[in-house]
Design brief:
It contains 14 helices and 12 strands. The chain is of the alpha/beta class. The strands form 2 sheets. The protein has a 6-stranded parallel β-sheet with strand order 2-1-3-4-5-11. Residues 2-58 form the HTH lacI-type domain. GO terms for molecular function: DNA binding.
Length: 340
């Protein structure tokens, strides 16, 4: 078992100094370089500071007092201010509450603070972590070694952890299938880049796949990179729809409802009738979609259910000490409204 003395000898400082760093003692200043070396030694030597954590590491069969706390990694106020994530968070929080667990909201700055990371993860003050915000791969793997980790939404779909998301390619496919049934073949797309390229965005992949499967030509000028910005979607769509009829699409799939709402305004300002001259389909089922004029046809995403499934996946991993990475994709639903 690694002790404070071992870390002190490894770094070349006193045990008292190591203790101050690990406890994040605000009453005494410790040189930043020494702090960095102490934390490096903690990770390198695998120091586990308290008896509770030692039992967790060394004896899976022993009876351990649970903390019943879960860390939720997300940007500050994300659960309150973003309608999409607020529904996910509701599913998560209600599921954990029923199981007797509490949620602790943490941010990337918390994880980058070695003292906070040490207290929460290495000392196992939380029993698991749910991720929304993206985490650097090295840090992600370090967390995974210490506690169960589940990713929610697209950021972790290609990583070696359990993830819960909706079928983004399938959602886009449903939208194109619906537009095709309405007689459209000149279909545009509004979305944004992922990791610097549109081709990595799964809704765009679903759009391309469906266009090819239905035998429709994909016209590059009909594909708009909005940067996930409503104003850019509005401006670029207005430019596209100002072109002659034979140079513009008859329908547009938007990767989000808010992008669709912005694009619909540009269509009206160009004197086009929705859906006679151009049709729109969004993805999300944002609350605003049913109140715009005309009402927006959309692909409804099961955000609340994503939260429930993510929470249950993490609870199962905590209870069963499961190591297999599960990839869960939830289905979506087409809601036909006036915009098509």
């Amino acid at each position: 078992m690694v002790r404070l003395k071992d870390i002190a000898e490894h770094v070349g400082v006193s045990v008292t100094t190591v203790s101050r760093v690990i406890k994040n003692d605000p009453t005494r200043n410790v040189d930043a370089d020494i702090k960095k070396r102490v934390w490096s030694a903690v990770k390198e030597l695998g120091y586990t500071p308290n008896e509770h954590a030692r039992r967790l590491v060394n004896s899976a069969s022993s009876t351990i007092k649970r903390t019943h706390r879960i860390a939720w990694l997300a940007s500050p106020r994300l659960a309150d201010e973003n309608p999409y994530f607020s529904k996910i968070f509701m599913g998560i929080s209600e599921t954990f509450a029923k199981a007797g667990y509490t949620l602790e909201l943490i941010s990337m700055s918390d994880l980058q603070d070695e003292a906070v990371f040490h207290r929460l993860i290495r000392e196992k003050e939380v029993e698991g972590i749910l991720l929304i915000d993206r985490v650097e791969e090295g840090l992600l793997q370090e967390m995974k070694k210490l506690v169960p980790v589940v990713g929610v939404d697209f950021n972790y779909s290609d990583h070696s952890i359990s993830t819960v998301d909706y079928d983004r390619e399938g959602a886009a496919y449903k939208a194109i299938e619906h537009l095709a049934s309405r007689g459209h073949s000149k279909i545009g797309f509004i979305g944004g880049e992922i990791d610097g390229e549109m081709r990595f965005e799964k809704r765009f992949r679903g759009y391309k796949m469906a266009m090819a499967e239905f035998g429709f030509d994909l016209h590059e000028p009909f594909v708009i990179d909005s940067g996930w910005c409503m104003n850019k979607a509005y401006v670029k769509t207005k430019e596209l729809l100002a072109k002659p009829e034979n140079e513009r699409p008859t329908a547009i799939l938007c990767a989000g409802d808010l992008l669709a709402i912005a694009a619909m305004r540009s269509a009206r300002e160009n004197g086009l009738d929705i859906p006679r001259d151009i049709a729109f389909v969004g993805i999300d089922n944002n609350e605003m979609a049913q109140y715009v004029v005309p009402q927006l046809t959309t692909i409804s995403i099961p955000q609340y259910e994503m939260g429930v499934v993510a929470a249950k996946t993490l609870l199962n991993q905590i209870a069963d000490e499961q190591t297999m990475d599960l990839k869960t994709l939830l289905p979506s639903t087409l809601l036909i409204r006036e915009s098509t």
